Structure formats: C-alpha cells, structure tokens
Amino acid sequence: MSYSTTARQNRKLSSPASIGVYVFLISAAAFFVLPLYIMLVTSVKTMEDIQLGNIFALPVSVTLEPWRIAWNSACTGVACEGIRGGFLNSLAIVIPSTILPILLGALNGYALSFWRPRGANVLFAILMIGAFIPVQVMMFPLVRILATLGLFSSLSGIILVHLIFSMPVMTLLFRNYYLAIPQELFMAARMDGGGFLRIFFQLMLPMSVPIIIVAAIIQVTGVWNDYILGLVFAGRDNLPMTVQLNNIINTTTGVRLYNVNMAATIITSLVPLTIYFISGRWFVRGITNGAIKG
Q: pTM, whole model, 2 decimals?
C-alpha cells in the first residue's frame, strides 16, 4: 500500500463524520451492554455487598448462591421450586411453536409464490392484516374458542395460539424469499413430473436453509420472551419462565433479594442470547439472501 493511500485512509478515519459514527456506535453499544453488565455483576454479589449502594462496582466476594437459589428454591408463587420448572415448560412450548409455524409458513410462502391459487393475493392481504391486529384485541375471542374446544389452559392451546399469531410473519418471510428464486427452476421441476409436495420437500425446502434460520431465530426469541400469551393461555401447569420470573421479581414478602432476581433474569434470557451469539451471522446472511426482498 502506497504512502498516499495510507494518508487518505488516515484522513478519512479522523474526519468529523467518521468520529461521529464511532461515537454513536460506542454509545449505542454501551447503552445495551451496561444493563447486562449490572445484571451480571449484581447476580454474583452478596446482599451485604449490594447494600453498599454502588451498582457499578465489582463484587467484593463472588458468590454463585443467588444462581442456585434462582434455579432451585426461589418462590414463583405458592411453590418455592425455582424457575427450573418454567425452563422445561418453555422448552415444551418453544419447540413445537417453532417447528410448526416454520413448516406451515414455508408451505404458504411456497404456494403463494409458485402455484398462486385463485384468490392468493386476497388471502395474503388478509394474513398481512392479521399481523397488525393487536394481541389484546384477539385475546378474548381466542379464550372463548379454546374453551369451547377444550384447549384452554393447556400445552396444546398455547402452542396453537403461537401458531396463529406467527402465521403472517412466517408466510411473509418465506413468500419474499421464494419470490427471489427463478421461476425457471420451478418450471423445470414441474416438467420433470414434480408435484406440489415433492417439489416443496425435495427442492424448495433444501434451498431454504438461510431463511429457515432467520425464521427460527425470530420465532424462538418471540415465543421464549412472551409473557402475556403464556400467562393467559398456558395454564398453571405450563407457565413459561417469563411468568415465573415475574412472580419471583414481584415477591413482596421479606427482604427483596436483588442478586437472586438478577440471576433469575439472566437464566431466563440465556436461550435467546445464546441463539443470537451463535447464529448472528446466519441471521444476517438469511436477511441478505432474500428475507426482505419482493
């Protein structure tokens, strides 16, 4: 690299615009990282250390006892069994509530992109309208419908509710992704005798790995972080971690254990955080490969 090129790059990095961009990025990173730092530091402090009043200070003595209490013995209501039960409930809700919407959303997007049945645009418009209806507006009708079907306050009921609310977004993602695939590829498969399901499972689905990863990240994060739907539809025996976390934090009897509250919060958020750290590059790749095209 020549001296003149290096000098131009140095001037570009030291320009007011570049400095402003770096200041903004550092400030934005600090805005999001600082609460996580406070939560993590507080979760390994003793209550005596917390009562000193400096939330930014590192712990005088590190302890993992708050994490053990949060997992095994924190009170989530009348029971004091920690949030481990909520973790298993959340897994039981998230896994089918991710697989089913992705499969059905992919089928919808595939049908709307390539087969285009009569009234497809009307059906797609109705689905998109559903995406903008607030959850609170549909909650009472869904309660009545699920109660009539005998699914209210059950694991099947909360999975069905997540499936209903995820259909518009999942269909939009896969439809836009498939619109970026050349029609000639689909026509060639049709000429080779491929039917609706054969083309979908043998051709389209293997090509959909990037958008499937995007959809899985969106769905897992949304379902895992959900509170209101789990509270209303899951039932007492299937309450997810978010509901149990709320019960722990809002306990008003005795001393408020801030270290236990922070430990429980971090444990609850570990799954979506881990997914983002591991699959972040796949998420960006899926978005750039067609998730917002069309």
A: 0.84
Give the DSSP letter string of 50-104: HTT--TTSPPSS---HHHHHHHHT--SSS---TTHHHHHHHHHHHHHHHHHHHHH
Residue 238: what pLDDT?
A: 92
Spatial contact of 232 and 243, defined as CB atoms under 8 Å apart:
no
Q: What is the three-class DSSP state of 185?
A: helix
Whether residue 211 contacts residue 113, with contact meaning beta carbons closer than 8 Å, is answered with: no
pLDDT 10s digits, 2-23: 545 555 555 555 677 778 888 8
> How far is residue 64's CA from residue 38's CA, in Å, rounded to a whole number?
16
Amino acid 144: pLDDT? 93
Amino acid letter for position 110: Y
Per-residue burial over 30-63, b = 16 or more CB atoms within 10 Å of its CB, e = otherwise: eeeeeeeeebebbbbbeeebbeeeeeeeeeeeee
Residue 29 CB contacts under 8 Å (≥ 6 apart), including other chains: none
Q: Tell how far CA 257 is from the center of its chain.
A: 28
pLDDT at site 64: 94
Alpha helix segments (H runs only) across 203-257: 209-225, 228-233, 241-249
Q: Give the pLDDT means over successive 10-residue stretches in the chain (294 positions).
A: 52 69 86 90 92 88 93 83 91 96 94 85 84 86 93 94 93 90 90 90 91 91 93 91 89 78 93 82 64 44
Write the CB contacts of 44 (distance below 8 Å, at least 6 apart in sequence): 59, 62, 63, 64, 66, 67, 259
Which domains can be identified in the chain, with CATH numbers? 3-72 (no CATH), 84-253+266-291 (1.10.3720.10)
